[in-house]
Amino acid sequence: MTPRASLLLVVLASAPLTLQAQTRSARSDLDASRRTAIVTAAARVAPAVVSVNVLRRQRQVPQDPFAFFFMPRGSELQVEGVGSGFIISSDGVIITNQHVTDGAQQIVVTTRDGRDYTAHLLGEDPQTDIAVLKVDTTGLPMAPIGSSDGLLIGEWVVAIGNPYGYLLGNSEPSVTAGVVSAVGRNLLPSQDQTGVYVGMIQTDAAINPGNSGGPLVNALGEVVGVNSSIFSNTGSSIGIGFAIPVERALRVADELRRFGRVRRAWVGLDVTGADELRGWKQSGGLKVATVATGSPAQRAGIAPGDVLVEARGKRLRTFLDWEAVLLDAGPGDALPVIATRGALRRAVTLTVADLPTSIAEKVSVLGDIQVVTLTPAIRQERGVQAQQGVLIDIGANTQQATGLATGDVVFQVNRQRVASAAELRQAFTGAAGNQAVTVWFERGGMIGRSAFYVR
């Protein structure tokens, strides 16, 4: 064999090996490209995500005259519910949504590997839609916690949860990806969206039924929010979802674990309300309407007519911005505020106090409150904008204790819509205890809120 032929043979023999090496390299590159930040983030948090399965009893209401006569009085039906949650402590402390646990008689938590645990409720807070559960075990994986403060509009996030519970056949959580659409979103009650949510994270990551209570996770694999509500007529995702900032969820969870209730921030001032929503683009802040005697606001030198333009470094445009600031503050916190009085602009610090009613005598559930169900005739007579609610007549003592006034139209208690006198009585009865009840009402065409305790 000539040297030339020998060289050709060596080249031909080595060609397949080079092709195999190239194929292996290409496959390796492809595998590496599949393992994106989203994959890594989901894998980091998923072990700490749980299903929350709830049993509650629901009173049956006759739907027709036949059912009215033949359905036993007080008939109840056992109803199953499902949500999600995530573990924040290896000894079994779990955060979920309050509307998932509301009215639960039995709660079972299922971990990613299929283990079931009976959970008991450490506490729940309807105003922030946060509940805390505890299962009796140790060594559970914990979700890494991040921060929502530095979220960037357009950055990747993933929503993790169990959207349909056992209907999907296993306990492996589902993952949907999207971006942060907006931050600091405020949502008012509407026919399609019950509850009041302020300072929320908006995302287009799909949030479907059962995702409630699951974590919203950034690309680093850190929890930045708690999936809470879906802005949808059908209850399924239409690309607009919302999550509670994780800092708020953790603060509420800590309050519930330490005190059994959430202490509410009180600074002793009221700002102008719903009329500011119409002109927020031109608004230079929120005008102070009233200041309570001896309150933190008065001690800081705030007076009626002052305009609050900033709090905790956040611009104030509507009264909901102020509500969001108060919701994330607790008794003892120092609340930096920038206020104007004419041409004078000054910075003051309010020392946040607890609600005065938390140390005052509790009011009766109804006491001397007289209520009338809102009808079209009453709406026309009083010029009420609310489509449904109850008109109240309240005694002087209860008025002082609750902040409500005769002529107010109450349309929501905590997250429960109120359309009749019976529903208001039921809402107050259900809220009685250590938790503050938040009442939303219309007064003179403006929306207001009052928080107090009932017994």
Task: Please give a quick description of this structure.
This protein has helices spanning 3-34, 37-45, 65-70, 98-101, 246-259, 275-278, 296-299, 319-327, 376-382, 396-402, 421-431, and strands at residues 49-59, 76-89, 93-96, 106-110, 116-125, 130-135, 156-161, 174-187, 197-203, 215-218, 223-230, 241-245, 269-271, 286-291, 307-311, 314-315, 334-341, 344-351, 369-373, 390-394, 409-413, 416-417, 437-443, 446-452. By secondary structure, the protein is of the alpha+beta class.
Explain what the structure shows.
With 455 residues, the chain is of the alpha+beta class. The protein folds into 3 domains: 32-262, Beta Barrel (Thrombin, subunit H); 269-353, PDZ domain (Pdz3 Domain, Roll), CATH 2.30.42; 359-452, Pdz3 Domain (Roll). The chain is built from 11 helices and 24 strands. It has helices spanning 3-34, 37-45, 65-70, 98-101, 246-259, 275-278, 296-299, 319-327, 376-382, 396-402, 421-431, and strands spanning 49-59, 76-89, 93-96, 106-110, 116-125, 130-135, 156-161, 174-187, 197-203, 215-218, 223-230, 241-245, 269-271, 286-291, 307-311, 314-315, 334-341, 344-351, 369-373, 390-394, 409-413, 416-417, 437-443, 446-452. It has a 6-stranded antiparallel beta barrel. It has a 6-stranded antiparallel beta barrel with strand order 7-8-9-12-11-10. A hairpin with a 2-residue loop joins strand 21 (409-413) and strand 22 (416-417). The radius of gyration is 27 Å and the shape is globular.
